[in-house]
């Protein structure tokens, strides 16, 4: 506010994390400009119809009457209104009519989630033509990067160190800053892995573990298998999420949960599963329902436990009581992930925490660990990969919004056969917390993390995660010493062995050790960005022995100990 009124710029770009108060800031600026007679009218441009209504309601509370039903062909609106709310698509339909309206009076244009002005070339051109005559333009965004290279109107760009133009914000308020100021919630990412089984188009049956090093195609197929409502993975994760929600509601009685689904068929199936788990029918919001906005508003005002949505609950949709989320969609672009997680960070009072359950796949865990990283919109950058931060997500969004009848050829090239879920780890504040070995859903080890109180400061969450991890590790070591058959007190190699190793068959023992090693290699990747293959090679070079698939138990254990030593050494440095 001080920066804006000290400089009084015609154009101002504010980049702020979801939940930080962009709407309040913009309406306060608008009210002050109206009182100073700098402007006479306001035009608010939002991405969706639902957000137009939400802006009008927020403006009414600020004493500024806004018409959310205005359309470009309508011409005039009631004299009782001080402004209108329109969508980017609506502006693009008739930008000349909006330009004439803007020219007639001194107008402030508020461009909400301004990166959407680059969604289509016609949208950007329409916004530029319609609002070029505006007296003031205030641009807002919570995700200042786009997945393409279309320039955003009225945004300043300057070359970065590599010579590529990047957007320049007039004011930036990131998640890390907001978290330190206690205006957003700390987010616990609960990652779940497990064994997946599916059949390919060639008729081959594949078994793989979610989170282990896999090819890009196999990772995608493993993720689709996990999200299949007919398997065991989704019911297990939904049950764990419901237990977490019950724990949060002990301290925050009206806390709600949201499942973000890939498509309508899955959304309905997840809702059916949740009803069986919680005993309460969830609110289901589908992407093409006209009543979607009303359902979201009703859920916001209620104390119902769960809502299941397909794409509808995205940026700007304000449901402050959402505290637990399940990321059950195959869309994994940074833009969509940031928008989704933004639904859970809006704090109402100090000490509230948010928990988001995610599949344990590298790209999602990487996005979770990078939540505090700032990104700017970059022009002229070459897109090199579908998983690239700047790869167009429009096709995936279209898939999310499509009806069941448009399922496509993937139905014929893939068949999920079965899945099971295991708790993997918790990601929080740049760190990873969990227990060694395989942690089964419903176990005491899982409840160490699901049972974290719903009202804690960020530093208290971090300390509690560390203490529970440390306490469980001490108990596991004590149990291992007490049950080790034939091992002498000085046998350090036996001491290091997995607590259950002596109680299982050889092939089960090797499988457990390989899983533990692969999990540690994956964690090392998230910490260092070193590829899994490079890490495995480095461990073989230091410890000796063949590839992990044919290594002995002692060789695998040596590599496990070595990578743990690396982690400790890196942390201490």
**Largest beta-sheet details:** 11 strands, mixed
Overall average pLDDT = 81
**Percent of residues in beta strands:** 15-25%
Question: For the CA atoms, what is the radius of gyration?
Answer: 26 Å
Tell me what you see in this structure.
Helices cover 42% and strands 18% of the residues. With 573 residues, the chain is α/β, with parallel strands linked by helices. Strands 10, 11, 12, 13, 14, 15, 16, 17, 18, 19 and 20 form an eleven-stranded mixed β-sheet that branches. Strands 3-4-2-5-6-1-9 form a seven-stranded parallel β-sheet, sandwiched between helices. The chain has a two-stranded antiparallel ribbon with strand order 7-8. Helix 5 (95-104) packs parallel to helix 6, helix 19 runs parallel beside helix 21 and helix 20 (532-543) packs across helix 21 (553-572). The longest helix is centred in the C-terminal third of the chain and has 26 residues, at 458-483. It is elongated.
């Amino acid at each position: 506010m001080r920066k804006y009124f000290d400089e009084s710029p015609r154009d101002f770009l504010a980049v702020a994390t979801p939940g930080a108060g962009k709407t309040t800031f913009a309406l306060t600026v608008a009210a002050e400009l109206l009182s100073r007679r700098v402007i006479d009218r306001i035009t608010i441009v939002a991405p969706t119809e639902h957000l137009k209504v939400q802006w009008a309601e927020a403006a009414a509370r600020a004493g500024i009457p806004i018409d959310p039903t205005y359309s470009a062909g309508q011409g005039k609106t009631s004299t009782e209104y001080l402004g209108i709310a329109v969508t980017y698509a609506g502006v693009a339909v008739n930008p000349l009519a909006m330009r004439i309206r803007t020219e007639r009076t001194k107008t402030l244009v508020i461009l909400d989630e301004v990166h959407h002005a680059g969604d289509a070339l016609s949208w950007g051109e329409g916004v530029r033509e319609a609002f070029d005559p505006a007296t003031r333009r205030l641009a807002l965004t919570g995700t200042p990067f786009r997945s393409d290279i279309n320039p955003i109107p009225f945004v300043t760009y300057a070359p970065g160190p590599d010579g590529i133009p990047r957007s320049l914000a007039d004011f930036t308020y990131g998640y890390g800053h907001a978290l330190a100021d206690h205006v957003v919630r700390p987010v616990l990412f609960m990652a779940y892995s497990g064994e997946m089984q599916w059949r390919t188009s060639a008729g081959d049956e594949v078994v793989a573990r979610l989170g282990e090093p896999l090819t890009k195609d196999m990772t995608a197929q493993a993720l689709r298998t996990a999200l299949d409502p007919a398997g065991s993975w989704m019911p297990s994760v939904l049950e764990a999420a419901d237990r977490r929600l019950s724990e949060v509601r002990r301290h925050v009685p009206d806390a709600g949960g949201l499942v973000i689904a890939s498509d309508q068929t899955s959304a309905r199936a997840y809702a059916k599963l949740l009803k069986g788990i919680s005993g309460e029918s969830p609110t289901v919001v589908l992407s093409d329902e006209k009543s979607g906005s009303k359902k979201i508003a009703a859920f916001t005002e209620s104390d119902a436990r769960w809502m299941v949505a397909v794409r509808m609950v995205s940026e700007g949709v304000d449901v402050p009581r959402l505290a637990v989320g399940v990321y059950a969609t195959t869309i994994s672009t940074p833009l969509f992930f940031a928008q989704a997680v933004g639904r859970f960070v809006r704090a109402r009072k100090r000490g509230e925490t948010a928990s988001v359950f995610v599949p344990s796949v590298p790209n999602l865990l990487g996005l979770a660990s990078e939540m505090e990283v700032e990104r700017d919109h970059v022009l002229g950058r070459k897109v090199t990969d579908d998983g690239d931060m700047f790869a167009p997500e429009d096709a995936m969004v279209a898939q999310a919004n499509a009806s069941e009848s448009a399922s496509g050829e993937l139905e014929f090239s893939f068949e999920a056969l079965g899945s099971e879920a295991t708790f993997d780890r918790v990601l929080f504040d740049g760190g990873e917390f969990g227990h060694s070995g395989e942690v089964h859903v419903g176990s005491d080890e899982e409840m160490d993390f699901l049972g974290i109180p719903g009202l804690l400061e960020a530093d208290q969450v971090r300390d509690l995660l560390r203490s529970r991890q440390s306490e469980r590790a001490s108990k596991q070591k004590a149990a291992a010493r007490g049950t080790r058959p034939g091992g002498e007190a000085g046998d350090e190699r036996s001491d290091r062995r997995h607590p259950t190793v002596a109680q299982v068959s050889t092939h089960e023992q090797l499988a457990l050790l390989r899983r533990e090693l692969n999990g540690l290699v994956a964690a090392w990747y998230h910490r260092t960005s070193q590829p899994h293959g490079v890490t495995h090679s480095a461990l073989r070079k230091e410890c000796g022995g063949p590839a992990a698939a044919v290594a002995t138990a002692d060789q695998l254990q040596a590599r496990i100990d070595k990578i743990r030593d690396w982690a400790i050494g890196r942390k201490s440095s």
